[in-house]
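Design a sequence for this backbone.
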């Protein structure tokens, strides 16, 4: 009986971990989309977009709030003569995060269940 409880507990932990990974992946997709949008508005190349996105992601991992990242992007654009509203940046991040989340959700439902390791 204890083994059954431990297996259920481990399964619950794995489900939680998977959910957190999906949320993180969706959030990162949103940050990348905002970086791509900013780089397109500035007329720069894809490599610059990747570097810029990586810098934003690093700042988020280090504790910057999403709103602070969007304000940073808005300020970077304004410094280069491109005016964009925070609402537009927020919409881009939300749209991409939602799309990524929907795709991840479909993939996880179609993936085979993981089995427990043998004793």
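Sequence:
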């Amino acid at each position: 009986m204890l083994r059954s409880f431990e297996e259920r507990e481990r399964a619950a932990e794995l489900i939680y971990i998977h959910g957190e990974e999906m949320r993180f992946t969706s959030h990162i997709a949103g940050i990348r989309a905002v970086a791509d949008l900013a780089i397109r508005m500035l007329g720069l190349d894809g490599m610059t977009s990747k570097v810029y996105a990586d810098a934003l992601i690093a700042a988020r991992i280090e504790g910057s709030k999403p709103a602070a990242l969007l304000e940073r992007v808005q300020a970077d654009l304004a410094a280069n003569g491109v005016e964009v509203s925070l609402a537009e940046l927020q919409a881009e991040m939300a749209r991409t995060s939602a799309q990524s989340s929907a795709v991840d959700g479909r993939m996880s439902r179609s993936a085979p269940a993981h089995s427990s390791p043998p004793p």
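The first helix runs from residue 2 to 42.
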